[in-house]
Amino acid sequence: MTLHELSLFEVGVATALILMNAVISLTLQLGLERRLFQASLRTIFQLALIGLVLKWIFGARHWGAIVALMLMMSMVAGVSAVRRTDRRYPGIWLTSLTAVLISSWFVLAIALTGVIPPSAWKENAAQYAIPLMGMILGNTLNGISLGLDRLGDELTTKRGEVEMRLSLGATRWEAAIPCLRTAIRTGMIPIINTMMVVGLVSLPGMMTGQILAGAEPMSAIRYQIVIMFLIASGTALGTTGAVLLGFQFLFNSRHQFLFQRIRRVSKC
In whole angstroms, what is the distance from residue 196 CA to residue 258 CA? Predict the structure, then answer.
């Protein structure tokens, strides 16, 4: 079985379905028409651009280009995670970038050494490294974004409780740990929910793509199991790292809560 090559007309038919979203928005006065249009254009442009880049990288097979692209992807993910938050503090950009880089690259290293042997990808590392990095980053980004956003909300709404614990002699860790736990839990909930219904409610993209390309279903399933565990690990490490780094920026060594550092911003 060979994968059917989609024509521009067939892609256009799928693109026209976005008009249904616009109709829904107009009918219910959701005000999302402009954002839908922008999102659609960005989807087409970004995917077309990455397609050209990947075509060149797959042909060149140069490690420098592969690493450069993955670094760019990591930086964009770190910035995007912060842009989705309502409450920010000095150092949140560094927090997000550090958490993204450490968690995603660590998990990718495990994947390319312990899961997929180097003998399988040494001829074309980009074919494995870049797609794996993309899937890990996409979920890690969501976890970090949700975790940091919830951390700011928890520390703001529960400021009185935190400061009361500190005034009664609690350390900064003892005062903040309930908020930290809630923030980490929030960041990990989406991937846990996905894992609970995968295969029953949804067929993940990688598994679907392999099956469409003619791979044996059980082979595709094994790859998907590996991917789910990789992204779950990346999400957990990234979310935990981001929240703990945020804790370091918002509490000093004298066990004081630096509440004045947290500010609310508009995401518009």
Answer: 38
- Tell me which of 52-61, 91-100, 131-140, 154-163 is least confident: 52-61
Instruction: Quote the pLDDT of residue 60.
Output: 67
Rounded distance, CA 24 to CA 34, Å?
A: 13
Distance CA(237)–CA(100), nearest Å, equals 9
**What are the contacts of 31-40 at 24+ separation with CB within 8 A?**
40/15
pTM score, whole prediction: 0.82
Contact 21, 36 (CB under 8 A): yes
Cβ contacts of 66 within 8 Å, gap of 6 or more: 57, 125, 126, 129, 130
Looking up tokens 């950009």 gives 93
Nearest to 152 by CA among 192, 103, 102, 96: 96
Residue 212: pLDDT band (50, 70, 90) is: low
- Please check the confidence at residue 217 and state whether its pLDDT lies above 90: no
Question: Alpha helix (H) ranges present in the chain?
Answer: 8-16, 18-28, 33-60, 63-83, 92-110, 118-121, 125-157, 159-167, 172-197, 205-212, 217-250
Q: Residue 263, SS3?
A: strand
Burial class (CB in 10 A: 0-12, 13-18, 19+), 45: exposed
150 to each of 54, 106, 154, 234, 246, how far by Cα in Å? 36, 25, 6, 19, 11
Locate 181 and state its tokens: 């736990």
State the chain's mean pLDDT as an integer. 87
- Cα 90 from Cα 65, distance rounded (Å): 33
Contact yes or no for 78/100 (Cβ under 8 A): yes
